[in-house]
Amino acid sequence: MNIKIGQNIKVPTESNLSKNSHIFILFNEKQKNPLFSKPLLASLKRQGGKIVDLKKTALATELENGSLVTWLMVSDNKSTFQIQTLLRKSLDKIISENPKSIAIVNESKKDELWTKQAVYVALINSQDLPDLKSGAKRKNLKSIDVYGISKTSFKDTEALVAGNTLTRELTITPPNQLTPTIYRQKIKKLSKENGWKVEEFNMPKLKKLGAGAFYAVAQGSDPQDAAIVHLTYAPRGASETISLVGKGICFDTGGHNLKPAKFMSGMHEDMNGSAVVLGILKAISDSKIKVKLDCWLAISQNHIGPKAYKQDDVVKALNGMTIEVIHTDAEGRMVLADTLTMASRKKPKAIMDFATLTGCMHVAMGDRYSGVLSNNAALGCMAVGAGSEVGERVTAFPSDEDYEEDLKSQIADIKQCTLEGGPDHIHATRFLSRFVDNNVPWLHMDLSSSNRKGGLGAVSSAVNGFGVSFGVNMIEKLMKKNTLSK
């Protein structure tokens, strides 16, 4: 993408505009006559509006030469999420015309945050995503010209967009086009392109290692092509290691506890956690941030069949714990259990896992927020702040030890879940905590906001890549912390 920073003297005018230009203008309340004020004021007069109305809703109009101009008044005291949402809605008309170039003009000359967010929103919503319709058109955006701010770099913005786009591409891909075999092939290709080291623990290896929790879920699929994939990004000079873990269930039928059709629809997106990890890894790599990332992807399917695991089975996990299977549709915590054990054994500075794990979190939060739970209070607080800063909102839930009383088993070390309902998002976290070293700070994100009809925050597509910007921000914060107090 060609993002050019223009000087104030080069701001577009009606006389130097090319035909069919697309211009987005940001201005503040002190400016009585923003760029192209004549058509702006004429449109406001026709609609019976006031210029201050543009704080809440942008106005778009067409100039005589065919150019499309949109105006938005910036305002103080808005959160990043509010800014991104307003910009997404304001840029919608411009983006819908699939432009080759967009000019973003900051007339206020000081609100650089708004300008950088406008570039991010324009860029992230101009990316090609999987579209298998006959005659589907590709996006045309080739350049963004930015006016009114001092020379700055948008490399980090482009890296975030690349990571988010990768996450959305993978998550949207239909399940017959992203089986574990195909997914693993794609990951190998990405690793080669980005210089990541890749190691696979396939089914025979996992059986030999004793990863019985993962194996129990994966054994029901034919072919048995599941694997825990370990990726490493280790730039020269990196001194800190942070581990990322992602749930990668390429399709979830529910197993023997088969989902009804309504709830099985969309279950190809149950690998979104692993896609978020890959998106974070891509963004960190493109930004060349000096941190070592240990990434662990639990890639499998949850199918029904004669070999599939079933209720009342007892399996032994990689760390030696025995698990009583209560519900086969609680497969995510099973595959994550052994994967978290692998990540934990490396003794990283911190572990973050991402998973579309429980319907309970979706009931608790809807699809606007995701929930986080942690074994470390400081890490949980950091997560809430990090999400707020980048417009990917999270809230923290408790995961106190006494919740684990509900998971007591008469025959095994722990139950996988309960059948009584209740706080399953907390039960899942307590279950997973048994597979993480207590001395390693660990954050679990339950991705209830990975898909929201109409978009969320900066992103207009339903599958929104939630977690990538959050994850990058968390990693940057963790690098500045010497220790994380309990």
Calculate the mean pLDDT score and round it: 94
Which second-level CATH architecture of the largest domain applies?
Answer: 3-Layer(aba) Sandwich
Strand order of the largest sheet: 7-8-10-9-13-17-14-15
Total discrete domains: 2
Distance between the termini: 43 Å
Largest sheet: 8 strands, mixed
Which CATH class of the largest domain?
Alpha Beta
Structural class assignment: alpha/beta
Strand residue percentage = 15-25%
The CATH homologous superfamily of the largest domain: Zn peptidases
Please name the CATH topology of the largest domain. Aminopeptidase
What's the count of strands?
17
Number of helices: 14
Computed over alpha carbons, the radius of gyration is 24 Å
What portion of residues is helical?
25-40%
The geometry reads as: elongated
Task: Give the low-confidence spans.
Answer: none
